[in-house]
Hints:
4-stranded parallel β-sheet; Cobalt-precorrin-4 Transmethylase, domain 1; binds iron/sulfur cluster; single chain; alpha/beta; Rossmann fold
Amino acid sequence: xSPKRVLLARPHGYCAGVDRAVQAVEKALDVYGPPxxxxxxxxxxxxxxxxxxxxxAVFVEDNHEVPEGAVVVFSxxxxxxxxxxxxxxxxxxxxxxxCPLVTKVHNEARRFAAEDYDILLIGHQGHEEVVGTxxxxxxxxxxVDGPQDVAGVTVRDPAKVAWLSxxxxxxxxxxxxxxxxxxxxxxxxxxxxxxxxxxxxxRQQAVKQIAPSCDVVVVVGSGNSSNSLRLRExxxxxGARAAYLVDFAHQIDETWLLEADTVGVTAGASVPAxxxxxxxxxxxxxxxxxxxxxxxxxxxxxxxxxxxxxADIRRSRTRED
Length: 321
Ligand code: SF4
């Protein structure tokens, strides 16, 4: 019988921005008590959202669904300035859990817009992060939804054009889009540092390392999670014979494993560790007991909780003392 093994890509799962956003909702529930309103999914993961709902978080699509004066948390994907204004108009107590690396892109967008550039934002049309970033400079930003969109871009002055991107894209596909943009606009300005975040890059790098040796790669993540979807594509592009996205271990179809000797496992940046452990347990139940970790890099990034929440946590501790 051939050996059945699992290659576990590292890093996988939670990034610093997701950890911060999920903790922000948990701490808000501790400090203010339920209900705590959350505008949009705090992160794109079904399990995380359901777990927080069970603790008293109420997920809404927009501020008008939040009672006046209540606490609302903005998701890790970031919001347009008008979302802050509409919250202020309803006297909402806001906790902004926008990932600091998304805020960095917002700042770049505002700076390029202030210098009168047209900004070509590479990203998925309609994705919450893209909507939030576009809102920073709506008159200046054009969304470029992949290399195929480049030909249709129109700008005011081809000599004053800059590109930015969503944080969770495929690194390789984004670079293709940038190359095509540069062919059309040779004076194209780049962001001062990578917009695709460290967590997205590291998870893609790690899955690229395991994929060529894998018959099947299981990506744990939700269907609306951009970085999880990209991991599946990157795995296939890097040589995995098949790759599947699952929210939960029970969604692994036994037939995927029938011809497999080596199964790769990774998880998107919004996936808690327990869901990956469940997948490893299920694979072990099918004889895949030999698990080797393949580490692309070690991550040490940690973000502090939103400032407005830290102040209230301190106050509630003082009251308890
Ligand atoms: S994936 Fe990147 S940008 Fe998104 S929350 Fe995580 S660290 Fe922040």
